[in-house]
Design goal:
GDSL Lipase/Acylhydrolase family protein; Rossmann fold; alpha/beta; SGNH_hydro_sf; 5 strands; Iah1-like
Length: about 270
């Protein structure tokens, strides 16, 4: 009997760099307003890895677990060499009668661990980077929620707890974490030792830096994606130095590589 991951096809030419997350991952593909995280990665890894965007708008970790077998290819279809796991923005919503996005904090942490340890993921022995949800701007998010008939569904402080949970999971599992929450908050002038309300809270004055990084108080602007990309490369170089693009060879030879062409099968 074959394994649960057996299949009749052969792996593709390129190994994959798979981005698994919610709308912040999905929307990172957009280039109509400026810089996009996914296209930037795709160009950086061109001819080396296939960058695959599996961002799913509105998804939380519970939904991610329901579809993970369909998101992650079988090893015989493609090998996932690198992977980002980027959830929490929806899990951290407050529950409402018309929204099932909320995942309680203990369940969120447990779900993240289940995703990392899921057979569909472990079959690839991927190099994984966890990403925390970014902070939110309550004032801007409140205006967005009101147009949808909701009260404010997220808070700066609750989002902080979910970001901290991602960092805790990373420490527990020995995985690198891109702490986007702290990176953005430090840009916004946050001091870890400060006791006053967080930047982005309704009790604080509007924060120009968060407005520059967050397009609607939650999703990222091109400047936000640029900062995310720059800091991701720092984390990657520290955690997996052999996986930075310049350390990976081209899969097919350069046009002027005479030695490679002389040995290339006809």
């Amino acid at each position: 009997m074959g394994s649960a991951f057996s299949c009749p096809v052969s792996p593709g030419l390129y190994e994959q760099f798979l981005l698994f997350g919610d709308s912040i991952t999905e929307f990172s593909e957009k280039q109509d307003v400026g810089f996009g995280f996914a296209p930037a990665l795709r160009y950086a890894y061109i001819r080396r890895l296939e960058v695959v965007n599996r961002g799913l708008s509105g998804y939380n970790t519970a939904m991610a677990l329901k579809v993970i077998d369909r998101v992650i290819p079988k090893p015989c279809e493609a090998r996932v060499r690198l992977m980002t796991i980027f959830f929490g923005a929806n899990d951290s919503c407050f529950p409402t009668e018309r929204s099932n996005q909320c995942v309680p904090l203990p369940d969120f942490k447990a779900n993240l661990i289940k995703i990392v340890r899921h057979p569909a993921v472990t079959a690839h022995a991927s190099r994984i980077v966890l990403i925390t949800p970014p902070p939110i701007d309550e004032r801007t998010q409140q205006a967005v929620d009101l147009t949808k008939g909701f009260a404010l569904r997220r808070s700066a402080e609750n989002t902080r707890r979910y970001a901290e949970a991602v960092c805790e999971v990373g420490k527990e599992l020995g995985l690198p974490v891109l702490d986007l929450w702290s990176i953005f908050m430090l840009q916004a002038g946050w001091k870890p030792e400060a006791e006053k309300p967080l930047p982005g809270s309704l009790d604080e004055a509007p924060n120009e830096e968060l407005a520059r990084l967050l397009i609607d108080g939650l999703h990222l602007t091109p400047a936000g994606y640029q900062l995310m990309y720059d800091q991701f490369n720092v984390v990657l170089a520290q955690a997996y130095p052999t996986e930075v693009p310049t350390r990976l060879p081209y899969i097919l030879p350069r046009w002027d590589d005479e030695g490679a062409w002389s040995n290339f099968p006809s």
